[in-house]
Amino acid sequence: MSLYKTYLEEIESRKEQGLKPKPIDHGGLVAELIAQIRDAGHEHRAASLDFLIYNTLPGTTSAAGVKARFLKEIILGQVDVPEITSTLAFELLSHMKGGPSVEVLLDLALGDDDVIATDAGEVLKTQVYLYEADKERLTTALAAGNKVARDVLESYAEAEFFTRLPDIDEEIKIVTYVAAEGDISTDLLSPGNQAHSRSDRELHGKCMMTEAAQAEINALKLQHPDKQVMLIAEKGTMG
Question: Class for domain 3-163, per CATH?
């Protein structure tokens, strides 16, 4: 059975638990999605696009690596996917937060196509998860006179990855919820005995406090749509 069919079966199983499809971290599954996307007539092409764009884990997962390399092919014009333009491909890379996505962005920023290199450099300016090897590639390119590398490094020096972030609200309204009485810790929100499910955030979220407490918090959110819910400890501290 293909990884994709197994994933579809898992989706049906999760529906019974009230859960959405699990984010994909398996590179082999992403490779199958891409194969189905490349096939214009494939019956699961639309679903595969959605899974690739919206439900593939970022970071250093094998899935992220396969996705990043595919986006690179799109940007370089090696493959045509009408639903994923070069602009969208860069945007998706910008949200992948390091690892293989930064490697791809560096490949593009230090490449021969000036337009692509400039666009990749602009995305790199927003990234903060770089390995030493990534920084070495930039400094080596700088020494060789690469203008994009200089532009990116000057941006880092000026902390534009922070100073260009959207402004926060001048005022943040809150409504408080008493999470427990006495001193409490983050174990209330993410129990250690449920650590095995932490990579599956939606499933893990079900063990936060109690179902009754979660229902009360959701009710607060509906009653106060303009406010943030703040958890507090009654007669104690929350650490």
Answer: mainly alpha
